[in-house]
Here is the input.
Amino acid sequence: MSIRPIDVARTDGGPQWVEAVATPAGVEVWWDEPRPGEGGRRCVVRRLPDGAHADVLPQGWNARNRVVEYGGRSWRPLPGGGLVFTNWADQRVYRLDGGGEPVALTPEGPSRYADLWLPPGRDEVWAVRETDDVRDLVAVPLDGGPVRAIVKAQHFLMNPRISPDGGFVAWIGWDHPNMPWDGTELCVAPLGPDGTAGPHRVVAGGPEESVVQAEWRDEDTLYAVTDVTGWWNIHLVGRDGGQTRNLTPLPQEFGDAPWKPGASWFAIATGAADRPGAHDPLVVVHGTADRRFLSVLDPGTGELRDVGGDATYWASTVSAAGGKAAAVAATPYTPLEVTLVDLDGGGRTVVSTPKPLPDRALLPDPEAVTIEGVHAHLYPPAGAEGPTPYVIFVHGGPTGSRPLVLDLEIAYFTSRGLGVAEVNYGGSTGYGRAYRERLRTAWGVVDVQDCAKVARGLVERGLADAAKIAIRGGSAGGWTTVAALVHSDVFAGGVAHYAITDPESWVAETHDFESRYLDGLIGPLPETRQRYADRSPLLHAAQASGPCLMLHGLEDAIVDVGQARRFVAELDRHGKEWALLTFPGEQHGWRREETIVAVLEAELAFYGLLFGFDTPEVPPLKLEGRA
Here is the structure.
């Protein structure tokens, strides 16, 4: 008995952008969720206080956007049950009121919008607007009036917030060549009578300090998540840039890499303070990539009170209202689920629709390990005795990480006797800035070495067969996959999803957000061009230690399909085995049910060829170059 590809496809992805809304009847919870069976759209869902669910977004509408290509916060609930959202098809902002049709609030054109936020007491939605790689913060009137620019400052912007007295606006910005986890600036500016910002002051952050979220505490101070100590902690920051105070001085992360503008790791539990002069507590997500907690933080004492129960992971979205918090939780045996938490009693209720799960016996029992200083999560294969084939899973980013949670994609392989080890290599988030910066100028070296260390460690522990270890990953994880194939002899083969295969050509082809990413990961061009050539998998394809399966979407604007096509051409030229499958209608990542099924079937067939076992349940895969 094994997990089927369709089982994975129908539970793929998770909810995001949760919001709790206090009403006279109780607390509503809103979120959006993927619909692989509906073309991969994201649908906004509303759960009423009585437990009733309703899809807010009608069929044919998709609450996504393409700001920085990865997209950002794409909707907010309006008072009375309405919705303001960005639609994928045309990237415009729409308003939807109960029972009606969505009405466009922004004009047709090249602009995209994200990081939507509703300023209290104003009939407008604030957002980041992106037009031809130029970004500003704008106000979009909810009655469809002209869009007003509020802030034009740094090249990249996020987190627009107005002070409680309406006199100031705060935001987070950064410029090339920094990425937002390298260095950002928390800015404050007076807000004029015309609704535009005056000259700003930088109150926190800088070229070596990353601020990832900020919220006003009162008209004079803000809470800000910044890593000035080497860990993303919550600080109290003065509006005038005065001395900051660390409220969570712990070797834990209270933030993460903001790949999508609009993520949140804390929320102010308004109205929950019960002492004269006390400030409202914060609901915070914190921990490491091995375990993330949900807690209530007393900003006066720094005391943390756990309210997350047995969940081992809380996602980067949290909202609080009416004495409750809404967040997204998971465990090694339960998927990402929207959870409503009672902040006083600590009770937790899963409010999203349960997903169908396989029998518990088919799920692996994972554990977090450290091998030669490298963090990894091991998912043992079902029914394993003695050394077995293993696949090293490499996360994307590379500034990211993988949590220790249920992943049916992994269980699909472990239920068939393949072990999986997810490697949070040097450069991963969740272990402090020093671990994250192990990858600085060393991409294609440290990540490859760390994956090889984990693979060899599995062999030394008697878990893996040294001749039957593969590596796979997507995007930057796909880069590490092909780099490991050509720059090490540990792996029998690799599977690369939408992979970068040549760094210099990728810099010239990719989008604005990541166009200077490799300045920090490899080095600036043209000064370090030889380093790019030395590490390029494309230029060293002749050294591949085994065959490679390449999988790529044809609408990928982040990694062009040409990266895959040129790599397999080089493999072919040097007599190496390969296969390339491309998917129309897919961007950077898989969203459609039929694509997810096809990708999993191809990957299993590849491992069957690589490790010598039959896979009659999936279509056969032909490797080019194999007699």
The chain has ten helices and 36 strands.
